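Review form for a predicted model. The reviewer records the input and the model, then writes brief findings.
Reviewer: anonymous (R2)
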Amino acid sequence: MIDAEVFFNNVSTYNVSIFPMQIITLVLAVILTYLLFVRPSTIVNKLIKIYLSFTFAWFALMFPFEGVLKIGFGLVHIVIAILFFIDIFTAKIEFKFPETSGKRYFMLFLIFSAFALYPLIEYMSGHLYPKILLFGVAPCPTFIFSLALLIGAVPKVGKIIFILLIFPAIFSGLSVPIMLGVWADLLLLVSGIYG
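Model under review:
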């Protein structure tokens, strides 16, 4: 079982030590998302894959998981990073803005959730900076963003990456709110179930 106090103390130390990486990763993701919607192209797709490959490698190497979680989630994150990197060259995944309105609105909701709603719910739950999971430097909100992009990519989606994102999303979405009081992870559960 994870000790919430130890976990959030580790997150606090991590956030302070990597600042301003939180701002850099968020700004880059917002720019790439904007480009995907207004100027979708092969180059934008490659840039998003580079971004996702970097962030998942970052989680594997830098995020303060401990013990078995460090090994398990570290392996999952490094495999996802490698698969996104390989897809820069194989182009099996094609990120795009969905044509159907329901899917489009849900994708936008998930992206908004990752960027803004997730930290807002954390803040309202009493998790203040630096004891907060932030987009781009913490897995949970970034998983939501990644699943949103992959939902838009269907049918040209990397099935292995999709599966590697869905199972931790559902697991974390069910367990983290209860064990750590991160109620924003219910958004992760929603994205995992929808995926």
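Findings: The chain has eight helices and no strands.
Further findings: The mean pLDDT is 94.
Recommendation: see findings above.
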